[in-house]
# Entry
Amino acid sequence: MMQLRASETRNAAAPAGECAPGFQPVHDALREVRAEMRTEEDFEELREEGEAGEESREAELVREAMRELPMLQGTDPDEWDSLCVVSKRPESLKELNALFDTRAISRLAPFGAYDDGAATAAARQSAALSRASVPGTTGKAKAYGKGPLIVDDENYPQVNGLGLEDNMGRIDDYAWDPKGRRLFAAVGSGGIWRSDNLAASWKDATGNLPTTVTGAVGWTKAKGGTLLALTGEPTFGSSAYTGLGAYWSGNLGKSWKRSKGVPAGALGFAIAVDPKSPKKVYAATQYGLFVSTNAGRSYKNAKLPTGPCAGVTNMSKKPQCALASVVTDVVVVEPGGVNTETKAGTVVASVGWRGGQRTNPDGSVQSPHNGIYRSGNGKPGSFEKLETTGFAAQDAIGRTELGHAVGPEQDHDFLYAIVQDANLLNNGGLIGIDAPEGFSSPLGSTVLNGIYVSDDFGQSWTVMATGTTLAADPTTGSALIGTGTATGYQPGVQGWYNLWVQPDPSRATASGVPTRMAFGLEELWSNDLPQLGQPLDGTTPVHFGVIGKYFGGDSCLLLNVGLPACPTDRDPTDDNSTTHPDQQDGIWILDPEADNGVQLVVGNDGGAYRYRFEEDSDEELDNANWGRGDQKGFQTLLPYWAAMANDGTVWAGLQDNGNMKIDGKTRKQYETYGGDGFFTAVDPYDSNISYEEYTNAAISVTTDGGSSWSSIDPGLTAARFSNPFAMDPTNAQHLVTAGREVVETLIGPSTTSGFTDAADADESTSTWVKVFDLGTRTAPGDAAASSSATDPDNSMTAITTRGDATYVGFCGQCDTLNKLVDSGPVFQNGLATNVGGDKRPKAGTSNGWHVAKAKGLPNRYITSIAIDPDRSKTIYVTVGGYTRRWMPPGAAGDTNKAIGKGHLFRSTNGGKSFKDITGNLPDSPATAVTVRKNQLLVGTDVGAFASGPNGKKESKPRFARLKGMPPAPVSSIQLKPDNPNLAVLALFGRGVWTYKFSQKVKVPVVNTGGGGSNAPKLDEVVESFDFEDGAQGWTASGFPGRWAQGSPGHGKGTAEDAGGSAWAAAGPLGYTDLADATLTSPAVDMPKGKGLLQWWMRLDTEGGYDIATLEISQDGGDSWQLLGSYSGGNP
# Structure
């Protein structure tokens, strides 16, 4: 039996006002604030004390909104419904660290760290797994998206007004080969890239590097030309992706060799080459400064005098030294110049751990000797810490970047430094290398200490500007001006994360003093046009202005309905474009082929940008001449998840660049939703219907391909900053997610925000339905358990669903990075499911839910779960971290006995027990698993792997690496819904890729009746109904209106087309408001599993409000199963 139901339940409210492109209503921004509040201790305390009534919650929301959205200060909350805020805003320290923790915790639990050799060993194991060694794994790998990420397409108004145009992944460093006119870039997690035409296009130069996680790049002409690279991502100064050492290439990156002497585990910050002695190379790393005298083939520790930690690289013996010698930059005096007194080859390095003299939990100082170090020859042991005058106070010195004069007409004694203030950062609550959950943020003030100049290469200094002076100046042209600068988003608020400084080598006074410089914070800055020509030596005041604004030329932080010109814009007539914010590096290039003799290329969280001097009539720097962005050739996006529809459309969540859509036909890539994007899902049969998760499970849905979005935030407790959700592969209307609460929906895009307990839900429920409570760490599965500081809420880490079966991986005290106790790590994982419980599982209900015993599963972070399509009690689970071989210092006697071995586990009894089926997979954090018939596909931090054709049945399956895939961390692996021979992979740092298997498996027929020989065939018609000759067994019921048989028909004409007959909910009497009408037919009656149901219908309803559902009964009409729910235009 089947029935169609049509409901008109409510009328849509018109919005109070329209926001300009690139802006969002305040109430949309408030849901992000609410999501963050649900993870913060102050709101939890209010809840526990019973004070968080409606009035109290609203007051707390207003306070928190004004802190997170400082542009709202001074406005009336009653008027927020009519206000808009820019959708791209500077991220707070808390947000950026939570972003990092999302990836770090899963890799470092349960200890918070592993031995430095773990990642290097895993990379070697990965390289050893030959594709030819395992049958059934051959295929073709291919980058799926084409071209840059387009941000200004008019079809996506949520982002197209920000002034951004073409974006790609974050660039951390540049190097220039003047003879070959080659520009090299180290692209965050994207590897090494080369441009032969000044950034107009890029080629991959990663070659055989064992990882794409790179932090610095260098070039020396020594030995015929050597390209140099440091691995390890230094941007956050943390250890989610540790370094694998230093490497060199003699063939422009086609192949690489490991350098000796730079330890594994160290993050790479900078490379400097001595122009006087090109074989001498300096490497600035987390574990100190290293010097090479053979063009990077080997290095020795320079042993900077940082106290008891000087020269220490083995942190297993001295873990307190991990932050004591963080060298953030290094520069070398070039020969020549004008009036230069400092000897060529003199080297200066900055020790600049961002936390400075903050103390560790054991009382030791993290980095007691931050500061400037200098040597006349760079030999190990020859450096001294300079007792500088005029520089930042010792306890204030944080992350420090250097820039020096190198032009032939410049005095090479001049050195510049931009310094982040450790005290300002520490006062915001940062306690260690990774920020804990719930700490307060320094949002509301800059963390920039200042910009300094030295005329004797580091021995004495003069301050040129401070963070305070930049923030207080309304004439800088900063897009963070006005309400932002006055109350919150001040220039330098992210100074611990992004900063650089470099003088222009082509500009100088007659005595050689540089006269133009650029530096990067959130925005790009330079000294002002009226002052060009004055010496940048600190003797006269300098006024700095913004030359690359945070967002578009006519955008302010806050506006009412409509888009006025921003009153603080220094050039209101420029076009509405700018560079991507968050500036990581910049390089001035002396170019004899350029009319003005110089080029400027910058790198930021959106990729590469070259300044178009050739299009600028006055050849000075401003906001209008950066072009669209120079991303041609790059494949460097940072997806957390990717899902493909049957038509080839891909949706993916991106770090730094929001939610992405790849057109299935053109393969063009579009940003559709701003902020940081994480998990995503798409209806396989309708790629216009997609879901995205912003932060803390704040899920939104689009039904028009990304042009508009609606919030369906379930409002979870203890959601992760990046919180997974899953779509049922057998029913696109069925989605699940969890924080502490496990929630489901069976109505897809018709879902509304919030959740309802399963016991209280009925057919009219439109919110998510809570089906289970994960409880607390000591009381898993206990809905009555109250959380506390010592017994935190359990929180979901991985989730999957298929049909009625759902599995949830979770952890209690997930934050192992910052919350350890004397007895050892308090991390505890767990697995919950509705399979194998006291009742048969049923989607959307609490039937069968329980915490599984999970015997044999290691106590590490559960990263992914896959249900075997053939049997719901068989699941495959991946876990993060490394095995006990790589336990960190002091963990040998830890109470956590269950760290175990292995990364891939199988259960055949619904999670009661597990067996290790890791086989020959590398000992690396595993991140994703999926089932391809009888084959297993696994993603890890060192690449993607496939088992043999029967791997899921084997006790020790053998795996091979998927040939052609970059060695990038794998975030997700999915199969194309209608083609299991095509895998879709999200590679963190290299975008979305596909892998087409050579050995085919049969495309399964969708079948809810058990599969096997009973699978229906499309060419066997059991029964058909055309309604042309009458009702044909269908009956109509409902009030106040019913379905009517007759016209309009179902041809290709309009809804009013009278040709043909059909059942219609809006018949001769027209539309009836608030009606609930049902059409039922016992005539559709066939044996279970013997039929494939198809139907045609025309929809012309109000999207999200007038809803038609299709249901089927397998018990004579006693109960009904939802097959689909539709609204709006034709599906």
In short: Residues 679-973 form a domain with the Methylamine Dehydrogenase; Chain H fold (CATH 2.130.10.10). The chain is about 5% helix and 30% strand. The first strand starts at residue 2 and ends at 8. The mean pLDDT is 83.
